[in-house]
Amino acid sequence: MKILAPSPAELTRGRAATPIAFIRAIVAGYRLRGMDPASALAQARIPPALLEDPAAHVTAAQMELLSGVAMQELDDEALGWFSRRLPWGSYGMLCRASLTAPTLEVALKRWCRHHRLLTEDIVLAFSQQRGTAAIHITEHTQLGELREFCLVSTLRYLLGYACWLVDSRIALAGTTLPFPAPAHAEAYRYLFPGPVCFEAAAAGLAFDARYLELPVRRDEKALQAMLQHALPLTVLQYRRDRLLVHSVAQLLAADPAAAHTAEDVAAQLNTSVRTLHRQLKEEGVSLQRLKNEARRERAIRLLLQTSKPVKQIAAAVGFDSEKSFARAFREWTGEAPSGFRMSRAGP
What we know:
Number of domains: 3
Number of strands: 7
Strand content: 5-15%
Number of helices: 16
Helix content: 40-55%
Low-confidence stretches: none
Radius of gyration: 25 Å
Shape: elongated
């Protein structure tokens, strides 16, 4: 990962929302390694005197630059949290290990499993029950003054990467943190939108398990670009939520022969017709297109896996006549249903 340093003007432009406590934690990492943070602070345009003001804040750009410089100077992407350094590229390795996963569920399981290759000072565990997915952190060592920054950063890295991986906002059902609410607790509503519970048994995130079925949408080229500018993932908020679109597709696939009006679909997904159409439009699809895709997939499956007459298949996917089905199928595939079946039949 290469640091792309912004200009001095860009560093201080925008809202200063990052608590100075997180900057002080990075400085503490330098102190634990017996090193001087002065150069890193200067590059990020953070006056040392600002560290003494508990109410101070810096911009996301300042936080990003300071973190990047510190990771390289300390040769530790964990910034001093753990008993051993995590050399430059460690989190990139975690990203690559999950990149080829087919779904978010597989990606998260890989992330938790491979994180133990980096350190066992903290261990991430994935769980799923009663429609809720969760990630919890078990601490196996005393993290001391870096505890808050370590746990918060670990959760945000994972959440930010997961959102990026499926190109979707992941709405949190709750975030738990095993320490008292700090003076800068207001920052947590930006880091972890949704209910936040302090003084919990362990650090963790919980969200709707249906997100786990979302497909991974990124590739190596996208990863290379992201790693050039990775730290914004810890604060980036996605407006798009792909869960609704995914749920619509699942609903239609379960019964492709049904009429599935917008009102019916919205009611079954506990949303409004307006929201349904808006989010589908953001995804670049329409309800009719998704209905056609569900019918097409069902029709192809029946043609290739059963010996049912074309007329019965037409009815099974919601067409009133074999003729109208044949016309639609030709538009979908370029072939008539019977020809499609014959051309793919075994010897």
